[in-house]
């Protein structure tokens, strides 16, 4: 019997809801765990890139184990593939470079700024999406969407200004946040292009990204001067230290998987908007968790960024619906 369209639509919505919910839970948990790893006195390891590198090792180990066992019997089958195929390396390595820089700058930003400001510090992803679409693809953007980007930039500036007045502003952390926003934008756009090269398999993409990142992180660790820090660190024999590191690695694996999965079942734009909305909830939780008091203008900056991002998403959705109704020339249809 043929399934009813309504039933298929409900199934799609349920799937998207579950994926987005998992992304929110894992992402928020990962931020708090990483903040503890990067800044807490219990760890006290001033080597943020080495911590991120270890998380990639944990993720790679999980993927490698699953690839050898063909997944978990009775639950799911891990797709076959190897990251050491020269053709795969050539196709995926550009995305892996973006992935490496994205998670590196995200953790560096998180090290130097507080969790409440982490959202605003990385709120320029939508702006970069518009700019890169024009720069790389020569795609124009409507005036309404450009105005939304202007408000996002204003909200970002206001947040930076208020963070400075409150005495908790970090210029270095903010710079890393801006770079992280740029890398996230590039990664989201390029993921859609690379997924067909791995047969639309998110597991394989996560496997390959982490495999290549283990190598790509080594020169970054050297340039950041972390070898001397690791050599002089005295808590490598601590069970609690390794417990925290492994938990952080598991979270790193989960966020990488659910980020790619959310992009796959939605779109790069929806992923960015979901990340913005998630970060708003994360900000509220963080202020309560760390007992931080913020003024009205600080909260206003968060509201401006969130509302502008939501309006941008709505305007883009309407534009795409209108464009889909326009008749296409035969030559464009053949290209599609």
UniProtKB/TrEMBL annotation:
Sugar phosphate transporter domain boundaries: 15-280
Keyword vocabulary terms for this entry: Membrane, Transmembrane, Transmembrane helix
Annotated coiled-coil segments of the chain: none
Topology with respect to the bilayer: Multi-pass membrane protein
Major site of localization recorded for this protein: membrane
InterPro entries: EmrE-like (IPR037185), Sugar_P_trans_dom (IPR004853), TPT_transporter (IPR050186)
Residue ranges of the TM segments: 12-32, 52-76, 88-105, 117-136, 143-160, 166-190, 202-221, 241-261
Subcellular location: Membrane
Highest taxon of the lineage: Eukaryota
Name of this protein: Sugar phosphate transporter domain-containing protein
Organism: Chilo suppressalis (Asiatic rice borer moth)
């Amino acid at each position: 019997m043929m399934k009813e369209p309504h039933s298929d639509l409900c199934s799609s919505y349920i799937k998207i809801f579950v994926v987005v919910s998992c992304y929110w839970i894992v992402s928020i948990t990962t931020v708090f765990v990483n903040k503890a790893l990067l800044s807490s006195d219990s760890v006290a390891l001033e080597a943020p890139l080495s911590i991120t590198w270890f998380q990639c090792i944990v993720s790679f180990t999980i993927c490698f184990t699953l690839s050898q066992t063909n997944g978990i019997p009775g639950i799911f089958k891990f797709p076959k593939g190897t990251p050491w195929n020269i053709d795969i390396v050539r196709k995926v390595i550009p995305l892996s470079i973006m992935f490496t820089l994205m998670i590196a700058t995200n953790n560096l930003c998180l090290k130097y700024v507080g969790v409440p400001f982490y959202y605003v510090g990385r709120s320029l992803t939508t702006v970069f999406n518009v700019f890169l679409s024009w720069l790389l693809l020569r795609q124009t953007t409507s005036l309404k969407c450009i105005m939304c980007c202007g408000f996002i930039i204003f909200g970002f500036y206001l947040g930076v200004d208020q963070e400075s007045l409150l005495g908790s502003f970090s210029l270095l952390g903010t710079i890393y946040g801006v770079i992280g926003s740029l890398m996230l934008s590039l990664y989201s756009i390029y993921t859609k292009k690379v997924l067909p090269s791995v047969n639309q398999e998110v597991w394989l993409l996560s496997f390959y990204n982490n495999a290549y990142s283990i190598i790509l992180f080594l020169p970054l660790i050297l340039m950041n001067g972390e070898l001397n820090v690791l050599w002089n660190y005295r808590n490598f024999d601590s069970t609690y230290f390794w417990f925290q590191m492994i938990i952080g690695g598991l979270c790193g694996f989960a966020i990488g998987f659910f980020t790619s999965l959310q992009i796959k079942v939605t779109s790069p734009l929806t992923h960015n908007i979901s990340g913005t909305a998630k970060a708003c909830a994360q900000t509220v939780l963080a202020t309560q968790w760390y007992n931080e008091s913020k003024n009205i203008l600080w909260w206003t900056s968060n509201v401006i960024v969130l509302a502008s991002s939501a309006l941008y998403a709505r305007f883009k959705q309407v534009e795409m619906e209108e464009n889909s109704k326009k008749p296409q020339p035969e030559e464009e249809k053949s290209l599609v």
